[in-house]
Amino acid sequence: MKIRILTLLIGCNACLSVAALDLSLKECRELALQNDEDMHIAQNRVAQADLDKGIAKTGYLPKFDINGGAFYLTPNPSMGSTMDIQMRGVYMAGISLMQPVYTGGKIITGNKLASIGSEVSRYQLDATRMDIIADAEKSYWMYVAVLSKIDMINSYILQLDSIYSYTKTAYELGLTTRLSLERVESRRSELDYRLRQAQSGADICRMALCRIIGVDEFTPIVPTESLDNMSHSENSFAGIDNRPELLMSQKNIDVKKLDVKMVLSDFLPLVGLQLGWNAFGNMKMTSYTPLQDGTMYPFSQTIDYRGFVGAVSVSIPVFHWGEGYRKVKKAKIEVENATLSFERNRKLMELQARQAYSNYIDGYDLIVTATKALDEAQNNLTSITDQYRSGLMTLTDLLEAQAQWQTSYANLIEAKTQYKINEVDYLRNVGLLE
Question: Distance between the two ends of the chain, CA-based, in angstroms?
Fold first, then answer.
């Protein structure tokens, strides 16, 4: 671990001014969820869907409105040759209550659609959450894998340095040739090149992980998890009933069925009730009235009104040239299309999940095989190293044994990394990544 931390700090000089972050897998997931924009958008959509649900419920309730106005009209309008109406400063005001009585089921259907929308937004939130966790875990294990390879190369270098020291001593004593020493030096240079490549790869993986968890790209990260002591539970295939995308696809069928009822409601009777109180005043009417002697006598009257009003409105669609029949039929076809899409998506998701499960099971078998190969390579290397120091094996045999050990070690790292990725993919495909 000390070698790993030192390598990280040397690999990126800019990181030296930033405190190192010890990061567990759990912390990685939490930071990714906290800092991902898509997660915040999905949470906002849940809040919006809940607001829509509340809005839909208000459809059952009466609507209260206050209205008022004032008029100033000049010149005065005339009604005949002797009557004028003065509308300078005429006012009107009122309070109204409107209560839907029957809307063809539109309010009930709207509430059901809003409830489904709220459920779907939560399924989408679950799907987004799983995607973020999957990306974070994969990035975490990729970074751990590159660091493990750096450790492996450093261990290889230490072995080679020991062989170089032994070979140099043998050369100085005249027990071997200069060519043997140069071969070790060449292999050492090759390892330096591989180490630089691995360090560059680790820096790229670190920056990608920094982006996912929302920290500065120069932050040194020290994973607290490792690829050692991996456990495996070979449970039976879990199925896809918990996958959010499948649940959303199922809800889409319910939405289309409710759309049929919503379309049908447009062609059913509508009944509404309206109650109110109105005030009207300051309208003056001027005119002339004849007296007994025939003289025209002027008079004026102010018109004011205060009172309650009630009304019931009924609208019954009668004939629309088959518009309702065609719209309902079209909506029913949408239900059929949604059902077909659900069956297609279900089959595809089932196939993806079973393939992911197969990869998950096979991945652990590869770990077992790679572990066995590494044990054999380690035993072989130990034996050949001892025999080389005893003069019973050539330098070529030793270098080949070291190369085989390095290949087996790298294969085991890749097998363990791929297993963790396969595990994440499987849990994501069956909707159990939490």
Answer: 29
